[in-house]
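Hi C.,

You asked whether I'd gotten around to modeling the 658-residue construct. I have! Everything is below, sequence then structure, no commentary in between.
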Amino acid sequence: MSSTSWTRAPWAAPAAAGALIAAAAFTSFSAGVNPFSSSHAGGGGTTAALTASHVLMTAAAVVAGLPILVKAVRALRHRTIAIDLLVSVAATGALVIGEVWEAAAVTFLFSVGHALEARTMTRTRAALAELVAVAPDVAVVLRDGVQVEVPSVQVATGETVLVKNGAKVPVDGVVTGGAAALVEASITGESVPVEKTEGDRVFAGTVSSGGFLTVRATGVGADTTLARIIHRVEEAQDAKARAQTFLERFSAWYTPAIIVLALVAALVSGDVVLALTLLVIGCPGALVISIPVAIVAGIGRGARDGILIKGGEHLEASARIDTVALDKTGTLTEGRPHLTDVVVLAAGLDRADVLTWAARAEAGSEHPLARPVIEAAVAEGLPVGGLPEHTDPVPGKGVVATLDGRRVAVGNLPLLLAEGISDDGGAAAEVDRLAGLGRTPMVVALDGEVVGVVAVADRVRRDAREMVTRLHDAGVTRVVMLTGDNRRVAEAVAAEVGVVDVRAQLLPEDKLAAIEELQAGGHVVAMIGDGVNDAPALATAEIGIAMGAAGTGVAVETADIALMNDDLLRVPQAIGLARRTVSVMRQNIGVALATVGLLLAGVLTGGVTMAVGMLVHQASVLAVILNAARLLRRRDDAVGAPVTRSTTGAATPQVQPA
């Protein structure tokens, strides 16, 4: 088997070396000789056993040491003095001076450590492996009316794909027919099946748990959300944190320093074994691996939970967040206004009459607040009908429409003045009251007479207050709302969710200035927004967080942290995960430094041999890996006592989307 093959099979070398060491020990013990000593006394039979034992031990050192030497030489070609060089020099020196047991033990233990490290690192990368595993291989496509099974990468954009019960969705697309429940855990981290019907979006890699769908493909192959997630996790797990970069620079100087120290020790003491032992115990293996293994595990855990972290640097920065700035619309609120109030101000009319006139007038309007009025009327079974005979939008005020020969005006109080209506019938008081509740009121007038007021508002997300509470529990000292909405609306939302610092009526450049102001005050800021009008602020904050990124390829690629669904509680969970990861990094560094310090003291006092030093060193490597692997366990990253979720979908207002 070639040296390259040994390198590629982590357990082959230690297994073969272990067998040779066992054979050497058996040969020596059979002849009554200590196989772990370089000096023996005995007759011919004993000498033959000793020779056989030495040959087997030497063979074990060569078998285990060859892959290590290959790695050391490759590193030297790239002008890097790697840990493998220290072990290779120490093992070669031990063989030269006849310490074959020490050479075999050192190379065997180091190769076992490499194999365990490779296995555990593979486990810490399990999130990526799971994502790759859910990628669908085949798709059933409808071509010329016939169902054809093809590789998923051969599906063309726009083709109709069939998703049957139990099958994986092979493409990103839009449902054109049927109904089914899909498990979207691979994309959003949410294991509860989501009902999908006509018009809903679906993602490659999700699994049907019941039902049948026809899907029009909008993203195939590398253009699917799943493919982008896999690419992002691959890059993120290889990205380096600042602490990792520092340790790599440190080890680049530290390793040559150990070699120099060993040479000096040999020259001063004349003890070659001491010098070789210093080479072995000076290996900074646990120190070098302490950071990357924690980063891989932390990012992997996040990926399983639908939290994509761009890399080690951003993971490390997230652990220092003490201020979270967030947009209101679409973040704290659902981003969809709903009808909240219908106030009747005219005798002889009821709630249905006022809402019907308002909805029929708004049917010809393009204003974003028209939709919730129309939807509410339709939901209540009111006769909205077709378009008005005539629609006249009044910019900044509302809309005036002609319906069945009657003039209907829907808008703000200035619209009444424009219509020449002097008697508001108490509308001004109702408008003030509703605005004070954080809603957006619109007066309804029929043939020059005020008949009522309708109000709409954006609903606060159910978990918004709990998110703010958990952020504080996780160590975030300040939560700031940055919104382009009016102050009364913003303050109403802030009061409901528990945010004290409210900054309203902000333009995108104002949000940027607010972030810079917070940073100038020494705060580490995370910004949560929709990535459009919040883009400057997102880019300036230390960490930019995009929510609901499953359907937004740009967000997956550009955000520092992308939350694959709209679950607000993922925000404190991400911060909690980052802090746990950095804590593990520090613990690992402590273990690595303490191990080297104790071993060095043991060598200088004569209590640690080369083999014992390598055994303890490898144990420390395994300890830091296993410590990092704890991050892979699923847990609730919220800190403190459970918080009762709000069950009221209380509405809050909005004049324009912020």
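If it helps when you're writing up: The radius of gyration is 35 Å.

Thanks,
B.
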